[in-house]
Amino acid sequence: LIPGAAILANGAPSPIFIDRVDTAIDLYKAGKVSKILVSGDNSTVSHNEVNPVRLYLLGKGIPDQDIFLDHAGFNTYSTMYRARDIFGVTSVLITTQSFHLPRAVFIAHALGIKAYGVNADTGHILLRNYAREIVADEKAVLDLLFNAQPKYLGDTIPITGDGRNYP
Questions:
Q1: pTM
Q2: How many other C-beta atoms are found inside a 10 Å radius of the C-beta of residue 60?
Q3: Structural contact between residues 33 and 67, judged by C-beta atoms closer than 8 angstroms
Q4: b/e string for 138-162 if b means 16 or more Cβ within 10 A?
Q5: Which residue has the higher pLDDT, 70 or 166?
Q6: Rounded to the nearest 5°, which phi and psi values hold at 7?
Q7: In 86-154, where does DSSP find H-type helix?
Q8: What is the number of helices (H) and of strands (E) in the chain?
Q9: DSSP for 23-68, written as a single string
Q10: CA torsion through residues 166, 36, 79, 53, sign
Q11: What is the mean pLDDT of residues 4-12?
Q12: Residue 98: CB partners within 8 Å, gap ≥ 6?
């Protein structure tokens, strides 16, 4: 699972996002994962975090049928909740940076997913990334305590299937 991150003004994934994606590609090519779930914000026509990553993955040789897109992963809680309820994920490797890994794995575990974090640090981290986690951690605890529902749920898209069969 690749959690969403910023997209540049030209529509390309940010360096932090690319680090997450490259880590997932390494896991796929090493046979550690058989599917890649890309999550991110696609809340408007002009803001799409997942489609540019799909194109990047295809360009790196990842087969289309093994790529799944979650267009409504607006935050880490929604990403993990939807991974479980929409995509049927029960076990996952999460590729993200050290500042984000504890929260991502914690949320996944709290939602009943067997999750492990894979560090995607390659030097593109800023101090503000760590500072942001203070508020994000508190929000995650509240979401879990109150069993918050993601903004969008929808039909199931089994991760065990073919990623080409879904939008």
A1: 0.91
A2: 13
A3: no
A4: eebeebbeeeeebeeeeeebebeee
A5: 70
A6: -115, 140
A7: 101-110, 127-145
A8: 5, 4
A9: HHHHHHHTTS-S-EEEE-B--BTTB-SHHHHHHHHHHTT--GGGEE
A10: negative
A11: 91
A12: 119, 121, 125
**The pLDDT of residue 128 is above 70:** no
How much is the pLDDT for 139? 84
Task: Give pLDDT, residue 126.
Answer: 61
- Cα distance between residue 140 and residue 158, in whole Å: 25
What does each C-alpha distance from 17 to 23, 92, 155 come to in angstroms? 10, 18, 27
Question: What single letter denotes the amino acid at residue 14?
Answer: S
For the chain, the average pLDDT equals: 91
Rounded distance between C-alpha atoms, residue 158 and residue 152, angstroms: 17
User: What are the phi and psi torsion angles at 155 (to 5°)?
Assistant: -70, 155
pLDDT on residue 133: 73
CA 146 from centroid of its chain's CA atoms: 22
Note whether 95 and 118 are within 8 A (CB). Answer: yes
Please say if the pLDDT value at position 123 is more than 80.
no
Q: Identify residue 116 by its one-letter amino acid code.
A: Y
